[in-house]
Inverse folding.
């Protein structure tokens, strides 16, 4: 979503008062935000609506580890300070996925195509050499490729909603190149100054795990 689109979709509301700014500043200095401080990775990709996989939305994941087998991510529409919290995603290992019952397994999606295609990225911080950061990013992809994700979005920013309206939407992932809207990756890549094609090439050595048949139900209806 472009900066112009983001501005158009933000609700028209009163700016923060001086009182609230002071209160927020004081709270940020005095309180312990341990769960948020545990966030250790920013990942960027796209989610599709399982109710209509022709609709997709850019998703900025801010993830922390609960254990070696479980991660949890806050999903924002942009990486900017005024970003809207639009959803959550849980990621689990294949070992845990195998313990789920059949109906539960249908709610989860794979990350294999996202990783191998170069779609899933870990945006680098300013000032860090690109070559060094890509080594770290590729190592992260070695871990993510086998995980299964369960994602719900609460705010449908792609249709212009100015507030989180209606019930939560189960989301999935792209699983093949033919599913991608034209120009989707090119526009995102330009904003981040990266190349999905180059990332795809660098990740060529990563083994591609088999995806369980119950996953990725968005594309099996």
């Amino acid at each position: 979503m472009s900066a112009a689109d983001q501005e158009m979709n933000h609700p028209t509301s009163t700016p923060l008062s001086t009182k609230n700014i002071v209160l927020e500043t004081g709270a940020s200095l005095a309180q312990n935000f341990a769960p948020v401080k545990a966030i250790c990775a920013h990942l960027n990709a796209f989610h599709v609506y399982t109710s209509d996989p022709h609709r997709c939305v850019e998703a900025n994941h801010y993830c922390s580890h609960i254990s070696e087998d479980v991660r949890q991510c806050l999903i924002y529409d942009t990486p900017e300070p005024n970003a809207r919290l639009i959803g959550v995603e849980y990621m689990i290992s294949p070992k845990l996925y195998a313990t789920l019952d059949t109906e539960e397994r249908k709610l989860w999606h794979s990350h294999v195509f996202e990783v191998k295609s170069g779609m899933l990225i870990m945006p680098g911080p300013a000032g860090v050499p690109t070559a060094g950061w890509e080594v770290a990013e590729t190592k992260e992809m070695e871990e993510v490729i086998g995980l299964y994700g369960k994602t719900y979005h609460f705010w449908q920013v792609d249709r212009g909603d100015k507030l989180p309206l209606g019930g939560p939407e189960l989301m999935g992932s792209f699983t093949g190149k033919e599913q991608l809207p034209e120009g989707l990756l090119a526009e995102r890549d330009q904003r981040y100054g990266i190349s999905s094609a180059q990332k795809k090439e660098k990740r060529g050595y990563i083994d591609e795990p088999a995806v369980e048949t119950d996953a990725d139900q968005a594309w099996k209806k």
